């Protein structure tokens, strides 16, 4: 999803696009692994384990990018809040992923760019023209269609609360990105990844202390809550490789996306994140025999189309503004 524009000195659009494609591919693998393991292990155990393994890989990158000194920051509170928002976004999304089809959960989360556009109006004071605003509203129509308000609760495969979890994840993610735009973050990509992974580790440990024995899952029937609250379990031998894969993917995602948005303008590379939608459909079909229903296909098309239009429109306006400024110099 969108992030702050890269400093001019760091502009490298081609490399930024490659990084974001690598990050989106790693995210799709991560989501598939989380869904695969969701029937046997609690979410907070997976979050803790993948971040613990991921931070070890990332610390190697920290050494390559300048050593321990790059972890120093004069804005620790900003990184803490960003980390918490990312944790909430991930936990709510993964809780939904345990019971929702992979493509459906992913598509609902892609409402985040639309929310970023709307939130930028009151928080950042940005001006959004009627075309972009219309595209955003059309995208939210797609979200509404995927919520299927015309259906009775008994006709849905999951509860309406579960259907709203990816939307909540998108909202908290959008808040994180808006906050980052407003306050600014000047850190190496590996350092940004370390801050977020450290927050995941702290939250995972907190869940273990409070609910690691599974006592709060007793008598709970909601599958998302069971996924969140069940007792920790030592991974089976075959599952250890999945956990290692989660850790490696955590490092790859944290680094590549941070690097991508530091190297290129968000308007250039953010549209490439929509590669995640066909990947989610592919993994859902290959590994879980899931194919989107008609309302989900329609909602996906509206969300993706609206998001891409907003990105392209923003890019067009930036080019027009740059052209006018260039003309005024001469």
How is this fold's topology laid out?
Blueprint: H1 13-37, H2 43-64, H3 76-97, H4 102-109, H5 112-124, H6 130-147, H7 160-183, H8 189-211, H9 223-229, H10 237-263, H11 266-269, H12 276-288, H13 294-329
Helix pairs in contact: 1-10, 1-12, 2-8, 2-10, 3-7, 3-8, 3-9, 4-7, 4-12, 4-13, 5-6, 5-7, 6-13, 8-10
Task: Provide structural commentary.
- With 330 residues, the chain is mainly alpha-helical.
- The chain has helices at 13-37, 43-64, 76-97, 102-109, 112-124, 130-147, 160-183, 189-211, 223-229, 237-263, 266-269, 276-288, 294-329.
- Mean pLDDT is 83; it is low at 2-9 and 321-330.
Brief descriptors of the model:
disordered N terminus; 330 residues
Number of strands: 0
Shape: globular
The biggest sheet amounts to: none
The secondary-structure element order is: HHHHHHHHHHHHH
Q: What structural category do the secondary elements indicate? A: mainly alpha
Hey, roughly how much beta strand do the residues contain?
Answer: under 5%
Task: Bin the helical content.
Answer: over 70%
C-alpha Rg, in Å? 20 Å
Unreliable stretches (pLDDT < 50, length at least 5) are 2-9, 321-330
Look at the structure and give the mean pLDDT.
83
How many individual helices?
A: 13
Spatial separation of the terminal alpha carbons: 37 Å
Quick overview of this protein structure:
The chain has 330 residues and is mainly α.
